[in-house]
Task: structure prediction
Amino acid sequence: MADAWPRVATYSIAACDLDAAQWGVAVQSKFLAVGSVVPWAEPGVGAIATQAHANPRYGPGGLALLRDGLTASEVVERLAAGDEGRDERQVGVVDGSGRSASWTGSECLEWAGHRDGPCFAAQGNILAGPDTVGALGGTFQASMGRPLARRLLACLAEAEAAGGDRRGRQSAALLVVERDGGYAGLSDVVVDHRVDDHDQPIEELARLYELHDRLFGKTPLEQWLPLEGTLAAEVKERLARLGYHSLDAWAGAENLEERVDGEAAIDPVVLEALRHVSS
Result:
């Protein structure tokens, strides 16, 4: 009865930024809640995308193999060898050292294929053509130096512009992990956003990421503004206008507490938000 299940007709990219010690996956599909099936990642271990007639066990199983020291190629070989449905599967793996490998089964629906490179594995099935996967890999390689999450979002946008899933679009997801890089330094999940059902899922995913970055992003300390003189008076007056006596209290109410560190200086993002709500 497995054939009764819809195929996860998808394009995705599993990738890493070794300098930032981040691993992640971005995916778009004409499939409901694709983020619940395709993306898997663990910091220092690797990232995996499983799709087509997807085998979700490739995610945790593949990460366990990576954790045991197998390379990306060895993991792909092991997963495919142990799966009777391998000809209908597609998977991309990036390991903890940035090595990559993919598998596209012979019975994946056209167009289906993949492209691997340093720190990325790009793959897709039921696509308009090979340009979609080419755009994933090319955009990733051309965007070095940018944050991994933004690189992955750019990959999705360019892949869609190159033709995308030939059935259309429905859902998208972005997952990025880093050891202790998530909320309050107590989580490994830096970004985990899912758009489950939307007519423009990539655009909506990008909007969610911008909200996330506003709340949880980090402005270099050298760019913070000293809270003294005229600026200190302005901030105090704006807080009072809103009924607050401290920056910490207002930031907590606005979910901006991760961008506040005492009263000596202010993150420009926090200042902009304060000016906006108090105008």
